């Protein structure tokens, strides 16, 4: 295996070379910590989101989907606590004008004091005392740029769920306990972004808020912790690279009663990429207070009224995609030659199969094209007739394509093709007309 130090570098370079992830606005020098997904990356991320949606919405009768707008009434952020509290303490260097998080381990000494040293320019005594900086992006609604028109790009998708809680409850005829799930963009003006797509300023979240009767929250919290870990293992992420981190009292967010992160062992250390939070009745109570609208629930069975508690599962689609890419990345020797292979779970692989005519003659390209046209009605498949078959396999290994289908001399005689397995490198002859059902069996989630 490659060393942890350079695996990140190698992944970033493969991601660009093969079209998983590009830097935003690269021809203009790039935009800090904003990334674009290329042809393979968009498929990978879409597959992750689809599997999440399937397991959180379609496979459950007690969860409904939602797609709320990014822009929301500014009062939402007062109620949620983001306007007052979504801040990081920062220090500025008066000399080089760089800005750092106050807890940046590279800072030597105490910011604001003469002994403190700037980690960028090395000047002493030029760092200001920490000041709070809000992470929300601001913009203006309508033509006038004035204070009354300020709106924010949402820093999380959860609030869109809380403010629609009654709408969904009433229109779907759900009863508590039930949940609302949403996938969407969120924006944070992160100060120390970095590590590729790990911490970015624009990202996607996959969040589910589960509304429960107070007193049953602990049970649901445990239930959702289990579900989420099982889901991740089902994606093929190696269990030994996953662990729980329980928030200590001083790590707990203002809204949380109990919280666990799911961490992955990234090349830069164990870090969170999903959180499960018991948010108590904080959110609905606050929205009730700030909006003046009643958000309590009348239990039809017991005639009790209560403000539901919320158990939240909050995952980043981009961080999950990064976990999946890092976990899939492997280098190995095959027949004395080095290969890089992305061992994606077949359901997540951007391209499910590649079709190759062995040579570009003897009717093979025609047969291969026909097969390709047939398969692409079912799956995202790729046609490649360029270069030696070995090189074509290598290219698909890097893309993480689980199956390579070669049409050779025997194909026109008996209607069979060879199917090469990306991981075992085993080859099987399969009747071309059976390929759709053959792949179907291998591509189950
Ligand atoms: P961190 O401590 O890393 O800033 P957080 O605790 O603020 O994360 P949450 O607010 O709980 O994160 O957000 C839930 C999920 O959203 C995270 O687990 C992560 O996957 C994703 N996420 C949050 N911030 C970012 C970001 N800046 N870039 C990419 N993904 C993010």
Unreliable sequence segments: none
The percentage of residues in β strands lies in: 25-35%
- Bound ligand species: adenosine-5'-triphosphate
Distance between the termini: 27 Å
Main sheet: strand order: 3-9-10-16-13-12-11
Radius of gyration: 26 Å
Question: Given the helix and strand composition, which structural class is it?
Answer: alpha+beta
Largest sheet: 7 strands, mixed
Q: Calculate the mean pLDDT score and round it.
A: 94
Summarize the structure in short.
The protein has 445 residues and is of the alpha+beta class. The chain has 13 helices and 23 strands. Helix 2 packs across helix 9.
Topology of this structure?
Blueprint: H1 4-18, E1 21-23, E2 35-37, H2 39-58, E3 63-66, H3 75-80, H4 82-85, E4 87-92, E5 99-101, E6 131-134, E7 138-140, E8 150-152, H5 158-163, H6 165-172, E9 178-187, E10 202-212, H7 217-234, E11 242-246, E12 258-266, E13 269-278, H8 282-291, E14 297-298, E15 305-306, E16 309-316, H9 317-328, E17 329-334, E18 337-342, E19 353-357, H10 364-375, E20 381-383, H11 389-399, E21 403-407, H12 409-414, E22 416-421, E23 427-431, H13 435-442
Parallel strand pairs: 3-9, 19-20, 19-21
Antiparallel strand pairs: 1-2, 4-5, 4-6, 7-8, 9-10, 10-16, 11-12, 12-13, 13-16, 14-15, 17-18, 21-22, 22-23
Helix pairs in contact: 2-9
Bound molecules: adenosine-5'-triphosphate.
Adenosine-5'-triphosphate binds next to strand 10, strand 13, strand 16 and helix 9.
């Amino acid at each position: 295996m490659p060393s942890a130090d350079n695996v990140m570098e190698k992944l970033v370079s493969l991601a660009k070379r093969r079209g998983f992830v590009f830097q935003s606005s690269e021809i203009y020098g790039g935009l800090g910590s904003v990334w674009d997904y290329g042809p393979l990356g968009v498929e990978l991320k879409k597959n992750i989101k689809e599997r999440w949606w399937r397991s959180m919405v379609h496979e459950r009768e007690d969860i409904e989907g939602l797609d709320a707008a990014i822009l929301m009434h500014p009062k939402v952020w007062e109620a949620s606590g983001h306007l007052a509290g979504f801040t990081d303490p920062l220090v500025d260097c008066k000399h080089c004008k760089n800005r750092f998080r106050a807890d940046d381990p590279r800072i030597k000494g105490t910011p604001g004091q003469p002994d403190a040293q700037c980690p960028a320019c090395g000047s002493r005594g030029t760092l200001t005392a920490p000041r709070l900086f809000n992470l929300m992006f601001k913009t203006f609604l309508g033509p006038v740029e004035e204070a009354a028109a300020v709106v924010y790009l949402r820093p999380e998708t959860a609030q869109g769920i809380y403010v629609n809680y009654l709408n969904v409850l009433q229109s779907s005829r759900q009863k508590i306990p039930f949940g609302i799930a949403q996938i969407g963009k969120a924006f944070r003006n992160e100060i120390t972004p970095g590590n590729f797509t790990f911490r970015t300023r624009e990202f996607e979240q996959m969040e589910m808020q589960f509304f429960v009767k107070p007193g049953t929250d602990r049970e649901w919290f445990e239930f959702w912790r289990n579900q989420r870990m099982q889901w991740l293992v089902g994606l093929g992420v190696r269990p030994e690279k996953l662990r729980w981190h329980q928030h200590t009292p001083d790590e707990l967010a203002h809204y949380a009663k109990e919280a666990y992160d799911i961490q992955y062992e990234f090349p830069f250390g164990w870090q969170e990429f999903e959180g499960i939070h018991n948010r108590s009745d904080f959110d609905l109570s606050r929205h009730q207070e700030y909006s003046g609208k009643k958000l309590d629930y009348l239990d039809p069975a017991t005639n009790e009224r209560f403000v539901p508690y919320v158990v939240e599962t909050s995952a980043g689609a981009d961080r999950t995609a990064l976990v999946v890419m890092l976990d899939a990345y492997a280098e190995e020797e095959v027949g004395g030659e080095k290969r890089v292979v992305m061992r994606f779970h077949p359901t997540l692989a951007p391209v499910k199969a590649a079709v190759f005519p062995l040579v570009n003659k003897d009717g093979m390209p025609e047969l291969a094209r026909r097969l390709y046209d047939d398969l692409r009605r079912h799956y995202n498949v790729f046609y490649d007739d360029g270069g030696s078959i070995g090189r074509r396999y290598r290219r698909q290994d890097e893309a993480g394509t689980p199956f390579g289908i070669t049409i050779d001399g025997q194909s026109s005689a008996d209607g069979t093709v060879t199917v090469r397995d990306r991981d075992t490198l085993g080859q099987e002859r399969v009747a071309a007309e059976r390929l759709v059902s053959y792949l179907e069996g291998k591509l189950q989630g």
